[in-house]
Amino acid sequence: MQYDKIKKRPVQFLSITGLKIEDFNFLLPYFKAEWDEYNDHFTFTGKIRQRRTFTRKNTILPKIEDKLMFLLIYLKTNPLQEHHAASFGMTQSQANQLIHLLSSLLRKTLKNLGELPERNEHRVIHVLKSCDDLLIDGVERPIQRPQASDLQKACYSGKKNS
Hints:
Elements: H1 3-6, H2 10-17, H3 21-41, H4 64-77, H5 81-87, H6 92-113, H7 121-129, H8 149-155
């Protein structure tokens, strides 16, 4: 799979990556800067680089566009690594290493852009005070039920009776 071929089909690109081509192109230079910074100082395996970096002819994903698309497809579709590796013509272990490396670089990129979800409750409260309208997309999270039966009743909604 190559970015140059898929970008000609915007609907398919959106469905496999979760981003429109314009959004992908916006994110790309920031991601490239993180990749270049990492690649200048470290090897693919994370060791400190001894020599200058260069792109080999037999590199699996030679272009930065292909690397970002590789990661976004993995994050959107959540396939088995073996299947994802076969789609891009590599081994599962290569895919695993690349996924972990690129994930950390994407996280840094999104953090620098200020696009990561907020984890600090005080910051969330501060932001909510400045909003007129609020739409919350919440998920149900399991809780540890207490041992005492009277306290268990307070935690039990009665809706999940099977």
